[in-house]
Design a protein that fits this description.
The complex is a heterodimer of chains A (376) and B (407). With 376 residues, chain A is α/β, with parallel strands linked by helices. Chain A contains 13 helices and 13 strands. In chain B, α11 packs across α12. Chain B has 14 helices and 15 strands. In chain B, 67% of the residues are buried. The two termini of chain B are 26 Å apart. Classes of the chains: A alpha/beta (376), B alpha/beta (407).
């Protein structure tokens, strides 16, 4: 019944990126090009980490970016999101936030909120004689939509305000969500992206999950993009890229351990998503210049992802592996992959718009793909 | 303007796993009778707390409802969501293979995700340190497992998106799923939400001073706050043409919705912003205030929420307020599932012709002003054509859905 109707491009006006590489696309580009080395910071609240590397945002202090006012109860995750959001708006120019606050909103991928904030509260709840005396300010800032809510409060975005969870594919769900909302007229402009924070409990969770290779670093960061279906004339000149089709689906129910994947398997699911985004973007497989891969360091998935790309495109184009330099960023990974793609294109002019493919796949069974077209 | 012609979307299946009963018919009967599902807490040791009541789903046996999921491999929130979705599909009479062979998925709202799993992991952390966490539980923890559980149970390969936008989340999920079906992005969608009673949420609402001493008394002069609740709510959204072709029972047509953000404060609701959301929902649904027969309120029973909500409704409706009631008086505050249950109650109100009541009401708060009909006590027989379902949340997230009798 569904139609694979062509999609209208969404313009990426600007990017705000906070990662272990630093702030913005430039340091990420340097890291990807091998012109800078990955940091070796110990990570927030160090001391209780599992034996594996971590890739924190170096020396991150929220007050350095936003001042001291109104940040008392904000966790690290919200801090990273707010700084990325601020940077995206500043890079977007005078019209960044849009003309009408009710038509500007937020769609942010963040899977389980701030694990550090949550575990702090959980600890208090489980150990206090009077658990009802936990800090109310911390509690109201522990809900999973606090980053999106605080972005709206700080910048007056009164439009839709969505937080999206979808495992490693959460950021692709966010891009797809943004397209859906704009295509039916709910918003003109959205701050879209993904955020993830590093903490000892998160690193341990990855360690226990057993899905990352032994030496794979756990990372963090936030990438937020100002996206619009209706850019101003000025924005048309300075925009970074256009987002074409984005498709995400669930393939987990067949069981990932079954060898005979068949039609329902994860490889097929990812390949089908890629084929569908090509069709809906009116892009031919041979026109894809670069693929920004997501399953870096994931046992089993890394090869599965490459196999699916080959299956759908007939070849494996040039690759960007942002996970190699930033570590595993979970629900932010898709947003970081887009940032990686933009960083890869940055400062390398081209005669024609280039086409990038962003792919995502997780052990939970989610898989998705996004087509991105460069402006220059 | 929309890129493609939009199709009409109807609700043809309802699934409720609630503190007042399992199954939409049982749920509706209990709601209509004003039955309260609040009892002493069983799921965790509530002895340190001054109030030890919650609305739990005590008779939930996942294996009795689920056909595919292994209950040992999923958290309670996911199991509640998947069970509700399975019940909604059964209720709709659609062949499950029709769903699994088409572009179908689920959008599920939640406030606290897999908080029962988190609670268990917290216990392991205390006794054994982070090194001692059980990998099986770690894998169950991500909030995204809630929508994944629905897709896995029903064998759906479309979107599996969990929306953790706190207590309006399932209304948002319903709206977004409606967009997906009407635009043709999906053939069918399950929409709803799930949350579970847990120690952290119980503590948190206490800390905020928002917890009732015994029972939630929405709109009452002596209301003291919420009682936490839990459950799974799911609705099956289907294109109207498809529903008609298979002769399906149509509970309601989704006429439209709106979502906005106060952008003022994390916790305190804002009447002006809620009123703007109501107006936008009416505009999107193509209805006027005079056409609304009933409002299924957010109605938490905190002093602030109820007066703000009635104030916002007055800004839009003037002196003619439709009946407005709170099913949280019976279900407790089921958090991310709350407005999903509101939507189910609204569908049943349209189908069976009644107004859901506000239980536990002793004396209506005179401060709410004149003409506030909260349908006290028991449900009331009434022909209902169009209903308005409210969901508000921390973060200032307001979502309002408008459901109408199909004709």
């Amino acid at each position: 019944m569904t139609t694979a109707a062509p999609v209208r491009p969404l313009t990426v006006v600007s990017a705000g990126v906070v990662s272990s590489a630093g702030y913005g696309l430039a340091p990420l580009a340097a890291l990807l090009d091998g012109e800078a080395a990955a940091g070796t910071d110990a990570g927030p609240g160090a001391g209780d980490y599992p034996p594996r590397p971590v890739r924190p945002v170096p020396g991150f202090k929220l007050a350095d970016h936003l001042g001291r006012k109104g940040i008392k109860y904000l966790d690290r995750l919200t801090g990273l999101s707010l700084v990325a959001c601020k940077q995206a708006l500043e890079s977007a120019g005078p019209d960044g936030a849009g003309a009408e606050p009710a038509r500007t909103g937020v769609v942010l991928a963040t899977n389980t909120g701030s694990i550090a904030g949550y575990t702090d509260l959980l600890y208090d709840t489980l150990t206090l004689d009077k658990p009802q005396l936990i800090n109310p300010g911390k509690f109201s800032n522990s809900v999973m939509n606090v980053s999106a809510g605080q972005m709206a409060i700080r910048h007056g975005f009164k439009g839709l305000n969505a937080t999206v969870a979808g495992g490693r594919s959460a950021s692709l769900y966010a891009f797809r969500h943004a397209r859906m909302a704009m295509s039916v007229g709910h918003a003109d402009r959205l701050l879209v992206g993904g955020s993830e924070e590093l903490s000892a409990p998160t690193a341990w969770a990855w360690h226990h999950a057993g899905t990352l290779s032994e030496r794979a670093p756990v990372g963090e960061g936030s990438a937020v993009f100002v996206v619009t279906s209706d850019p101003t004339a000025e924005e048309q000149e300075t925009a970074l890229a256009d987002l074409l089709a984005c498709e995400v689906g669930y393939n987990g129910w067949a069981g990932l351990n079954q060898r005979q994947e068949g039609r329902r398997g994860l490889t097929h699911g990812l390949a089908a998503a890629i084929t569908r985004v090509l069709e809906r973007s009116a892009v031919r497989a041979e026109d894809v210049d670069v693929v920004s891969l997501g399953a870096t360091h994931h046992l089993g998935l890394e090869r599965l992802e490459e196999r699916a790309v080959r299956l759908a495109l007939g070849h494996l184009p040039q690759q960007v592996r942002v996970g190699e330099v930033l570590g595993e960023t979970y629900s932010a990974s898709g947003a970081m992959q887009l940032a990686g793609l933009l960083a890869h294109w940055r400062g390398k002019p081209s005669e024609r718009p280039r086409v990038g493919l962003v792919t995502s796949v997780g052990h939970d069974g989610n898989a998705g793909a996004l087509i991105v077209r460069s402006r220059v | 303007m929309p890129d493609t012609p939009l199709r009409r979307v109807v609700i043809t299946g309802l699934g409720a796993v609630s503190p007042v009963g399992i199954g939409a018919e049982v749920f509706a009967g209990a709601v209509r009778a004003g039955r309260v599902g609040i009892e002493p807490i069983r799921s965790f040791d509530a002895s340190p707390f001054p109030s030890r009541n919650a609305a739990e789903v005590n008779d939930f046996e996942p294996a009795e409802i689920l056909r595919r999921l292994d209950p040992d491999r999923w958290g309670r929130s996911g199991l509640l969501a998947a069970a509700a979705a399975r019940l909604a599909v059964e209720d709709s009479g659609i062949e499950p293979e029709v769903l699994s062979s088409s572009r179908s998925g689920s959008i599920m709202g939640t406030t606290s995700g897999e908080s029962a799993v988190g609670q268990s992991l917290g216990g392991q952390w205390l006794t054994q340190g982070l090194k001692g966490l059980e990998p099986r539980l770690v894998g169950q923890m991500p909030a995204s497992q809630i929508a994944n559980a629905v897709n896995a149970e029903l064998g759906l390969s479309g979107d599996a998106q969990t929306i953790p936008t706190a207590c309006s989340a399932s209304n948002y999920a319903l709206g977004y799923a409606f967009d997906m079906v009407r635009s043709g992005e999906a053939d069918f969608m399950l929409a709803g939400g799930a949350d579970v009673v847990n120690r952290l949420t119980h503590s948190g609402f206490y800390a905020l001073g928002a917890m009732a001493a015994d029972l939630p008394r929405p709109f009452d002069a002596n209301r003291g706050g919420i009682v936490t609740g839990e459950g799974g709510a799911a609705l099956l959204l289907e294109p109207l043409d498809h529903a008609l072709a298979r002769g399906a029972r149509i509970y309601a047509e989704v006429l439209g919705y709106a979502a906005n953000c106060d952008a003022e404060h994390m916790v305190h609701p804002d009447a002006t912003s809620i009123a703007a959301c109501i107006r936008a929902a009416h505009r999107n649904a193509g209805v006027t205030p005079e056409q609304i027969d009933y409002i299924c309120a957010h109605g938490t029973g905190t002093p602030t929420n109820d007066s703000t909500e009635v104030n916002a409704v007055r800004q839009v409706f003037g002196d003619r307020l439709p009946p407005i009631s709170s099913i949280k008086s019976m279900l407790g505050h089921t958090m991310g599932a709350a407005s999903g249950f509101g939507a189910i109650a609204s569908c049943k109100a349209l189908e069976q012709g009644f107004l859901p009541p506000t239980a536990n009401l002793v004396e209506i708060d005179p401060e709410l002003g004149p003409g506030v009909d909260v349908v006290p006590g028991r449900g009331r027989d009434a022909r209902v054509e169009i209903v308005q379902n409210h969901g508000f949340a921390f973060g200032g997230n307001n979502v309002i859905t408008i459901l109408g009798r199909y004709s």
